[in-house]
Design brief:
The structure holds 2 protein chains of 2 kinds. Chain A is about 45% helix and about 20% strand. Chain A is of the alpha/beta class. Chain A has a 5-stranded mixed β-sheet with strand order 4-3-2-1-5, with helices on both faces. Helix content of chain B is about 65%, strand content about 20%. Chain B has 4 helices and 3 strands. A 3-stranded antiparallel β-sheet of chain B has the order 1-3-2. The two termini of chain B are about 15 Å apart. The chains are: A alpha/beta, B alpha+beta. The interface between A and B is medium-sized, with 20 and 18 residues.
């Protein structure tokens, strides 16, 4: 089981009440998520608390919010595949995301980092000529190579690789 | 759209205006906020208040001034409580 800690505006969009569940057994730990409106499209930015590994999910429709855990799982899978993680590593991560609960945000440091990432992704989208012209896997690739002060200026992808290293051994 | 009445002190307003990179769309209403007693009162949608908290949190992450960081953290706590009420 895993927890996605959502901002109030995202909880409203998801039509979900937050729970106080704390995941017991975890490899990556909880995530924070925020709703962004870009060019009138509803998008969600999801960032892992322990690594700041980030997944940007663009242009969600109303039905997408109803099946958000599935959608998040799909984007997580694609993102890990795109980063050349092994099948064993991907399976281990997806395993702990089979059951997703929603919680309230509880880490202002992660929220602050997400604010920086949101600024960066908006710049990338603008430079690419708009959200429809943006290559989303490439955007996620760039976001996960952004150094962040919360990670002691390490890249989220390197933090994630370190976390998942033990799975291959 | 549901709006929240945000009550902050002039010192807290200055923290936001002087130290964060929040968009003017979020901060302009603080510049003209009505004074009620010792508080400034402005109205925010849930979405805007979430965004404002994000900008304050980003500044709290970046600053090397521990005193300022504490002040910003306290302000975030206060705004988050208003958001949850």
């Amino acid at each position: 089981m895993q927890v996605i800690r959502c901002t109030q505006k995202l909880l409203r969009e998801l039509k979900q009440e937050p729970t106080n569940v704390v995941p017991m057994n975890h490899l990556l730990g909880s995530w924070h998520a925020n709703l962004l409106i870009i060019e009138r499209h509803k998008c969600v930015l999801v960032t892992n608390d322990s690594t700041l590994y980030t997944i940007f999910i663009p242009c969600l429709t109303k039905p997408d919010f109803q099946v958000f855990p599935i959608l998040f799982g799909q984007h997580l899978f694609k993102s890990l595949l795109n980063e050349d993680f092994s099948q064993k590593q991907i399976e281990a991560v997806l395993d702990e995301h089979r059951d997703i609960q929603y919680g309230k945000t509880n880490n202002r440091r992660v929220l602050g980092s997400m604010n920086d990432l949101a600024f960066q992704l908006k710049c990338h989208i603008k430079m690419d000529g708009g959200i429809k012209a943006t290559n989303i896997p490439e955007l996620n690739y760039k976001l996960n190579r952004t150094i962040l002060s919360l990670n002691n200026y390490q890249r989220p992808i390197d933090m994630l690789r370190r976390k998942l290293e033990e799975i291959n051994t | 759209m549901d709006e929240i009445e945000v009550k902050i002190t002039p010192e807290e307003r200055d923290l936001i205006l002087d130290h964060t990179l929040a968009d003017e769309a979020l901060t302009d209403r603080l510049k003209i906020a009505e004074m009620r007693g010792k508080y400034l009162v402005a109205r925010y949608s849930i979405s805007d208040l979430d965004d404002l908290i994000g900008f304050i949190a980003a500044e709290a992450n970046h600053t090397e001034d521990k005193k300022l960081q504490k002040k910003l953290d306290r302000l975030i706590d206060k705004l988050e409580r208003m958001l949850e009420e």
